[in-house]
Every structure is written in C-alpha cells, then in structure tokens.
Amino acid sequence: MDRIAEVSMTRMSEFNTQNVANLAGAFASMQHATPGLFTKLAKRASCMASSFRPQELAQLLWSFSVMYHSADPLLYSLESIYNNWIKKMPNTWTPMRMLWTVLLKVGNLINQCLKLEYPHLGLSVGTEFENRVAKACKIKIFNEKTTSLLQKEVGRLLVSTGFDWEQEYSVDGYTLDVVIHHKKVGLEIYGPSHFSRNT
C-alpha cells in the first residue's frame, strides 16, 4: 500500500474526482495511513471541488473522517462555492433555486454529521455557511412532509428487520426520511435510489 501511495502522490495532478474519491476510500477502508497522502488528496480535491458528484464527495469526506485527517482545503473550497451559489440565487423561486436549496440542505446535513461524530477534528464548515443554509431551509416547500412509494417500501423492509426506526426525523431544519437511532443510521431517499452512511 505504501508503494501505491508513493506513486499516487507523484501523479496526483492527473487524478480526476473519481480517482481522488476512490483512492481515499480504499485507504480508509483498509485503515492504512500513509504520511502525506491525505494532505495531497485534500489539496487536489480542493482544486476541483465544484466537479465532484455527490457520492464521490460523500465518500471522500467519509474517508477523511475515518482516517482522522483534516480536509480543510476541500472544506474551504466547498464553503466558498456554496457562498457564491447562494449569492447568485435569484429572489424568485425557480427550478434551479429549488435544486440548489436541496443541495445546500444535504451539504448542511453532512456538516451536522461531521460536527456530531468528529467534533475534535474540526471538519465542519463555518457558521456563516450554516446560517445561510438554515435560512434557506426555513422555506415551507422544503419542510413539507411527504412520503413516496419508495419511502413506504423502505419502511416495510425496515419493519421486517425488527429495528426501532423513525420516519421524517428533523435535524436542524432538514428532515431525514428514516433514522435508526441506536445504530446511528440516517437514510435520505431520492428517486429510484438512496444513499446512506453510518453517521
């Protein structure tokens, strides 16, 4: 693994978002820390922060938290991008504004998970970002509780597991579709698929 890390660090400038996320995920899954690798990954990720797909970004942040390594360069870049998006939002509702609001809420949820699970690492973003997202989350359209057919199906499957779970759980103005408290698991279900992480 050390040799892979060594070669990766020399070719880091050639890595795309998927390469960065997968490499970080592989090392985090094996709990293998190589000096300097995660520092270089954070710097490379910060250069292309706006290009990450949501799952790549989630995997990358998960990897940094598992390895107890700061992702500050990436988090600062993301905060800057989000602040710029918020400033560019029109004053009237548009489909694009709704999309950005939903994305910011997911970013806020990741931020809250980092604050709760790894407060000693200082991985969460600043309060200005949190305040802006909280303002966006207070809009009625995004706080309506609705249950899709997929959510109902996930609920039926959870009942069969015997777990104690709660539907439509509110966290800092954001509603998670399903929460299993004693396992520290939250599910957010989108369309035909869902993403989950033990946070």
From TrEMBL:
Gene Ontology MF: a single term: RNA binding
Highest taxon, organism lineage: Eukaryota
InterPro entries membership: FAST_kinase
Membrane-spanning segments: none
One Gene Ontology cellular component: ribonucleoprotein granule
GO biological process, one term: mitochondrial RNA processing
Record's protein name: RAP domain-containing protein
Organism, scientific name: Taxus chinensis
